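Sample pair:
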Amino acid sequence: MSSKVSEVPENIARSRELAEVQHRKSPDSASEKDWKVMFEAILEGTMAGYWDWHIPEDYEYMSPTFKQMFGYEDHEIPNNPKAWQILIHPDDLPGVFQVFEEHVQSRGKIPFENIVRYYHKDGSIIWVFCRGKVIEWDHHGNPQRMVGSHVDITELKEAQMNLIESQRDLEGHVAERTAELELANEALHKSQQQYEELYNNAPDIFLSVNPNTGKIMRCNPTLAEKLGDKTENFVGQSLLKIYHPDCHEAVQTAFNEFKATGRVEHAELELRRHDNSKIPIHLKVTSVKDKDGNILYSNSILRDISDIKDMENELIQQARELTFANQELESFSYAVSHDLRAPLRHMSGFLEALWQQSVTSLDEKGRRYLEVAIDSGNEMEQLIEDLLAFSRTGRTSIKKQLLDFGLLVEESLAKFEAETKKRHIEWQIQSFPKVNGDEALLRQVVFNLLSNAVKYTRNCRKPLIEVGCFESADPKEGLNDAITFFVRDNGAGFDMTYRNKLFGVFQRLHCAEEFDGTGIGLANVKRIISRHGGQVWAEGVVNEGATFYFTLPVNGKPARMNNGSEAEANTTS
């Protein structure tokens, strides 16, 4: 409580005593009315409500400022003790009576002081500091008159309560923050333990290097295990100690990159074991920096890639063996096919001669046998020709140049003019961009696909063949970085269940009696497009037609497949 508030009753008592003394000394100088005016003025100056209780008469004078403190005019509250007892909060009234009894029983030694709540006229609560004193007693020691004052301390009380509430909130926040810090410290401790366990037991090598000296500051036991030494023998040593001399120059390059940029994304180096053997590793480095951006030390991860290197070497060897085997197979296929042509031609020639000379003398069964032999010879000759063409496709070197693809289509269409003249085929030919490729091989691709479309629309009443292309820059369309060409027809189509067989050698989805062919044309298409870095695939519905697609990469880059098309294309080989 402020000194100003505590001093108000004392000021009132002294003021009244001073006025009474002045009145006794100079009764003519001031009337009773003047004295009262002077006293009221002093009370107004103290900003306090004054009360004067004449106990035997049950009369209590309450100053206008007393009543105004609670929102009432002077005439609205009668001057008796019951008036203020109605205004006081019922929970605080017993305490007022108790303090009064203690004050009377002690003959004023125990001060009459309390802080209570009053109801304002508008229903709000007014906090009041009340202080009084019995100033008259009878000869039996009973109180006769008591004076005192009320001071409105609502603002002070609210400030005090706000301060207490703030203190509670602060204590609550401190407690919460303390709990959070304890949890954080516990989590940090666990994290540090986990980090140490990971660091010490990781299969990869972890080490930190001083950027200024190039010396190892810390390393995990994996380094020692890999190199056959003790961990303490590496700490404080030059970084070059753990690397094989053959790659010291590459190590220095990586270290310079780390000092310049604070990281090394990829480097393949070789560690040196105690027996001078090598361990191939992949190196990745990040850095820890201070607030000014200066590198404090490195965080280096060295991964043993011995298994990967062994696999790479094995794959390289297998690729060499496969290439050699393919070359031998190509040579064998070419030699066999070439060597078969001469005797086959002799057989076909003699069969034709026999037909011309003896056809009239043979019965129907004999002529049928002879026809089958001649047809089989012709099929064999065609098969050999296709095999030779397929073999040449794999052996011939590709000579790429800028080509007018539309001209290749026109040239191929001209070859079918005689065959299709009476069939009334509807051709829908789009315009085409220029492409990079081998002219002879791509001409064979176009011819083979158009030949298929012409053949498999043979039984259609209104055959329709469409040739077009589209750019495949949008991944949603299946490819990117490529131009996709297609040949679409409304012919026999095929069952998509067997699409994996389409581009295989000798694979046919239709019987020879229905549609002729050797089953090598589409295999040749796939081989040619694959050698150009493209992909091939097909879509079809039985008796509703088929569409064959192939891609040619833009700017010589291999086309990348999306939406599963690459997997489908690869499985059709």
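The two ends are 98 Å apart (CA to CA).
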